[in-house]
Specification:
- This protein has about 300 residues and is mainly β.
- The chain has a single domain, classed as Lipocalin (Beta Barrel), CATH 2.40.128.
- Helices cover about 10% and strands about 60% of the residues.
- It has four helices and 15 strands.
- The strands form two sheets. It has a ten-stranded antiparallel beta barrel with strand order 2-3-7-8-10-11-12-13-14-15. A two-stranded antiparallel ribbon has the order 1-9.
Length: about 300
């Protein structure tokens, strides 16, 4: 528990530092919005998938509706899901209990991601046979975070790419260096045919390198992405504490397609994070975190215009 608190505190300190640190930009590439305030209305879906023995095992997670608000000075920025709409029948696909908290900070130099995810109840849909198998007791809890450094931060804006809090005037890219740390616990994995211990706890620390790019199309459309590939060093929690480590491949990627107007905009974004886990020899699992979001952005100075005297 102390380790988890220390991790959360570290992520919060980094986020606060990024929020209060300002860096100059190349104004030929990046422009600030004239409006001071922004409201975001969004819908999206989050999930964690397990790939094991040729099967994709996923939760019956809801479609989320949410609202966000930001203010330039003083710096205020928050976004929260308010309503969850169940898309699939619980009787057919099973019931999933979801607690998924994610914080994404798009700073000038650093992109920070924090995760606290808990999913209980999964299913597998065998498309050829149309047989749906439920795993009501299978659960995943994942706590961790990512940090991605942007080398060409004066010309490439992550805020413009993934939040529309700035305007990317000209296409630009940047080499990136990223890393993350995750504590993952899977319970009742015998339901999906994994023998041995019924509960599986791992710790992983990873590093990766990659590239970020925003392609500005006719000043109104913007296609952006950041992707890193690398390795995780990790193991079962008891082995990890003794520094008995194994290496696993890792991929962390995000994309965004946006339509931009001076006072409003639309964008569709994705975040995909894939890691491999080995519970025993010859027992391999892929764990993939998915986040899809469609958002409407409105920029303004005041909701209520003053009447002329």
């Amino acid at each position: 528990m102390k380790r988890k608190r220390a991790l959360v505190l570290l992520l919060l300190l980094i986020t606060v530092y990024c929020g209060f640190t300002q860096q100059r930009v190349d104004t030929n590439y990046i422009k600030q919005y004239e409006q001071r305030q922004t409201i975001t209305v969004f819908t999206g879906r989050r999930a964690i998938q397990i790939k094991h023995d040729g099967r994709i095992i996923e939760p019956n997670s809801p479609l989320n509706l949410g609202l966000g608000y930001s203010l330039q000075h003083p710096k205020i920025n928050f976004e929260a899901s308010l309503v969850g709409i169940r898309l699939s029948n619980r009787h057919k696909y099973g019931k999933t209990s979801v607690l998924d908290f994610e914080a994404h900070k798009y700073g000038r130099r650093l992109v920070i991601d924090a995760f606290f995810q808990r999913y209980h109840g999964f299913y597998h849909n065998d498309l050829p046979t149309k047989i749906i198998t439920q795993y009501p007791n299978l659960s995943i809890q994942r706590i961790g975070g990512e940090a991605t450094y942007l080398f060409n931060h004066k010309r490439f804006s992550a805020k413009a790419a993934f939040q529309q809090k700035e305007i990317q005037l000209t296409s630009a890219g940047s080499f990136v260096l990223g890393g993350g740390i995750y504590h993952t616990r899977l319970n009742n994995i015998n339901e999906i045919g994994i023998t041995g211990r019924n509960n599986f706890v791992t710790m992983q620390v990873g590093l990766g390198a990659g590239y970020a790019y925003s392609w500005v199309i006719k000043k109104r459309w913007q296609l952006s992405g950041i992707a890193t590939m690398g390795l995780n060093a990790g193991n079962d929690w008891r082995e990890f504490k003794q520094l008995h480590l194994k290496l696993y491949p890792r991929v962390f990627a995000r994309t965004s397609l946006g339509y931009i107007q001076p006072a409003w905009g639309l964008y569709f974004s994705t975040i995909i994070h894939n890691d491999k886990y080995y519970q025993q020899q010859h027992t391999k699992m892929d764990l993939t975190t998915l986040n899809f979001q469609l958002a409407y952005i409105r920029h303004f100075n005041s909701l209520f215009k003053k009447k002329k005297a």
